[in-house]
Hints:
With about 350 residues, the chain is an alpha/beta fold. Helices cover about 35% and strands about 20% of the residues. It has two domains: about 220 residues, DHBP synthase, CATH 3.90.870; about 110 residues, Rossmann fold (3-Layer(aba) Sandwich), CATH 3.40.50.11030. A hairpin with a 6-residue loop joins strand 10 and strand 11.
Amino acid sequence: METKIVTVQDAALGENILVEAGEILRKGGLVAFPTETVYGLGGDALNPESSKKIYAAKGRPSDNPLIVHICCMEDLQKIAVEIPKEAYALAEAFWPGPMTMVLKKSPLVPYETTGGLDTVAVRMPNHPVALALIEKSGGFIAAPSANTSGRPSPTSAKYVEEDLYGRIEMIIDGGFVGIGLESTIVDVTVTPPQILRPGYVTERMLQQVCGQVAWDEAIVHVESGKAPRAPGMKYRHYAPKGELVVVRGENKRVVDYINQCTDAAESAGERTGVIATRENASLYHAKVVHVAGAAGDEEEIARNLYDILRRFDEEGVTRIYSEEFSSDGLGQAIMNRLLKAAGQRIVDLSEKSS
Ligand code: AMP
Ligand code: MG
């Protein structure tokens, strides 16, 4: 299949292209598009054949449900039933935006879209191109991240092209995304609402709207081996091709330890890389050092993380070490993704020193 690649920076100027993309979706085809979190791979959420095509194009396991994207509040009642009042409060506070709610599904949503579940995950993205496309496609776009299953989610159209060229009808290039990590997923079918995946909308922000919020135990205690309630969270994800290890501890010890490891690995013929804070970057010996952001600047680190993981692949890096970043606020999502990418491998120097 020939994939058409188009650039739309502005929804109004790109109107004709978005009409064409909407037509592709209405006919059951697939279109990748920018959102404020990461690029999405879109298909008509109400068409079971479209959802099957999404799974096939990504190589995604079919028990891993898709998020349905809407562009107006009235459409929520068409795909969800028994919507609790917390859901309206959360939508009011965070939509359009990087927050996904799990609700009971209506009969309109096929099981192919929900991975066989009776619930549906819904989000209204905060991106003018995405909102216009949803509207032109009929109102309901099922869209997981537009990467091959297991790889880091794409933060720019060139990464979508790398993974999906020839497998989908169209890629809409809207430039670099703003946030860089996937949405926060909140299950509002339970009381109190439960965080199934941390994201840009933090626990504290949710608490300000709902009062109490809980966490899916399986996310907090990964070592418990419990199955996460968001099926996608059980898969290895975001992983670069090289082996990644996160190092925790006091700053100087971390830098020294990483330098010892990369020196030894280089001597053994490996190509090494480091994910560093800007403050520490010049201290490392590794062949490739990527700056995630200034220490404590979670927004910058979130925006750069997946891009860095992909760049290590392009640069042929076989062994990667990362500093641990703050795990407060947005840091919860950053560390969740980083540790997943590392297959939970963490070297804890702080324990050894105590
Ligand atoms: P992605 O769109 O690639 O970020 O993946 C969507 C995430 O949402 C995956 O982790 C899914 O398992 C999760 N998800 C989607 N629908 C549901 C649902 N009905 N219940 C729980 N998790 C869901
Ligand atoms: Mg994904």
